[in-house]
């Protein structure tokens, strides 16, 4: 399984800025290894974010997203202490969920 995501949720008023750094190789399937063989595609294809268990963001990604992707988004109606969770799933069937507390 991949390394933990780094998630920060900073509240200003009732809006939180959520920043997420994911650790993933994001292979597009177009690069070749040292022997000239194609490296199989393996990339994140689904990202979901929740606030206290309620879905606030869903996105579908393709092979053109860079290695160790970073995403930032804003969520309204957030208070300090609320839980923000982010889940990704990749084309190989792996998934990861990490959580942060809004501050």
Overview of the molecule:
By secondary structure, the chain is mostly beta strands. The protein has one domain: Immunoglobulins (Immunoglobulin-like, Sandwich). It is built from no helices and seven strands. The strands form two sheets. The chain has a four-stranded antiparallel β-sheet, with no helix packed on it. Strands 1-2-5 form a three-stranded antiparallel β-sheet, with no helix packed on it. The protein is elongated. The relative contact order is 0.32. The model has no long low-confidence stretch (mean pLDDT 95).
Name given to the CATH homologous superfamily: Immunoglobulins
Radius of gyration: 15 Å
Which sequence of SSEs, written as H and E, runs from N to C? EEEEEEE
Query: In terms of per-residue confidence, which ranges show pLDDT below 50 for 5 or more consecutive residues?
Result: none
- Separation of the first and last Cα atoms: 28 Å
Write down the domain tally: 1
Topology at a glance:
Elements: E1 6-12, E2 15-21, E3 44-51, E4 54-60, E5 70-76, E6 83-90, E7 95-101
Antiparallel strand pairs: 1-2, 2-5, 3-4, 3-6, 6-7
Summarize the structure.
The chain is an all-beta fold and 103 residues long. It has strands at 6-12, 15-21, 44-51, 54-60, 70-76, 83-90, 95-101.
